[in-house]
């Protein structure tokens, strides 16, 4: 009989022979599921291209061209328009019984312009002045030679404390306010912009009311009229009721030339053009002008309108 050790060795050999190897445990993959070398290379190329395309981050959408909104316009082809003399006749008829010096002719210039763009704003000296009641005050250092100069030039009030007190109390008679450059800091500290701003009296460099040359500014301001574009319209008084047609025509011509000059100074990216010119009076309606001067009625001459009596 075989020994015990021989029996055990035989059993060990039988168990090893019956045990499957690691290779035998791995299932065989069908050939149609195994990717080819060409497919693997193409896949790697796609991943590489996608990786490079994402290096710069997500692509930004192309910017849309900004579209501006313009103020509303009207078709004037069917609208009745008047010559200057005809408009004066009708407007004077409305103002019958009114004091001639208290009634003003006003021109409204409608512009073709976009909303939110730069506005037309300046001063103009008309051939025949309309306002003769200019009253000026000057903000300048107290007790300085500048204060004495302002008083000599005709300022009704000059200095800092006195002017600021009058403004805050609301008891002042001036309708124009200048500020010398040496008092700009005092003007900011006084915090009177909320009072002066709504009245159009706040001194600023844009309106040329902050100056270091009072004499020149006084000379320019007296007899000059300010205008400013609001909502696409520029308005300004161009005459009194007693003005002759020739005086009114010269004032309107000067005013229109100044506006066109201001428009030409504005950047080309903000197109502006004169669309309509309307003439009105203090209590009268607005009549659209057609750029003609003479009356349409042959029986009436411009000389017949030189007097309001």
Domains counted in the coordinates: how many?
3
Provide the CATH topology of the largest domain. Ribulose 1,5 Bisphosphate Carboxylase/Oxygenase
Strand fraction equals 15-25%
Order of helices and strands: HHHHEEEHEHEHHEHEEHEE
Roughly how many Å apart are the termini? 162 Å
Mean pLDDT metric: 82
Instruction: Specify the biggest β-sheet.
Output: 6 strands, antiparallel
Spatial sequence of strands, sheet with the most strands:
2-7-8-1-9-10
Shape from CA axes?
flat
Strand-pairing-aware structural class: alpha/beta
Overview of the structural elements:
- This protein has helices at residues 4-18, 22-25, 37-53, 84-94, 145-153, 161-169, 184-190, 193-196, 214-221, 245-265; strands at residues 104-112, 121-125, 136-139, 157-159, 176-180, 210-211, 224-230, 233-240, 273-281, 287-288.
- α5 links the parallel β3 (136-139) and β4 (157-159).
- The chain folds into 3 domains: 2-51, no CATH class; 84-126 and 225-306, Ribulose 1,5 Bisphosphate Carboxylase/Oxygenase; 136-221, Rossmann fold, CATH 3.40.50.
- Helix content is 34%, strand content 17%.
- By secondary structure, it is α/β, with parallel strands linked by helices.
- The model has no long low-confidence stretch (mean pLDDT 82).
């Amino acid at each position: 009989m075989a020994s015990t050790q021989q029996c055990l060795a035989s059993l060990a050999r039988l168990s090893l022979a019956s045990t499957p190897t690691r290779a035998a445990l791995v299932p065989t993959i069908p050939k149609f599921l195994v990717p080819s070398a060409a497919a693997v290379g193409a896949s790697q190329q796609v991943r590489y291209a996608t990786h490079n395309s994402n290096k710069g981050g997500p692509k930004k959408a192309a910017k849309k061209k900004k579209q501006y909104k313009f103020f509303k316009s009207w078709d004037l082809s069917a609208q009745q328009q008047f010559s200057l003399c005809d408009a004066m006749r009708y407007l004077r008829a409305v103002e019958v019984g009114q004091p001639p010096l208290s009634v003003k002719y006003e021109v409204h210039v409608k512009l073709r312009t976009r909303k939110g763009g730069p506005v037309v704003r300046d001063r103009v000296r008309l051939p025949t002045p309309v306002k003769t009641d200019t009253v000026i005050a000057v903000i300048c250092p107290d007790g300085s030679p500048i204060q004495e100069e302002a008083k000599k030039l005709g300022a009704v009030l000059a200095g800092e404390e006195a002017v600021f007190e009058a403004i805050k109390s609301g008891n002042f008679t001036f309708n124009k306010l200048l500020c010398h450059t040496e008092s700009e800091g005092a003007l900011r500290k006084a915090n009177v912009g909320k009072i002066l701003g709504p009245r159009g009296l706040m001194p600023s460099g844009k309106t040329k009311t902050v100056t270091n040359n009072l004499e020149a500014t006084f000379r320019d301001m007296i007899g000059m009229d300010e205008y400013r574009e609001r909502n696409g319209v520029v308005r300004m008084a161009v005459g009194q009721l007693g003005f002759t047609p020739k005086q009114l025509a010269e004032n309107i011509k000067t005013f229109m030339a100044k506006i066109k000059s201001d428009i030409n100074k504005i950047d080309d990216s903000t197109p502006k053009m004169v669309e309509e010119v309307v003439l009105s009076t203090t209590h009268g309606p607005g009549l659209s002008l057609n750029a003609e001067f003479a009356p349409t009625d042959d029986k009436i001459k411009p000389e017949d309108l030189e007097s309001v009596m």
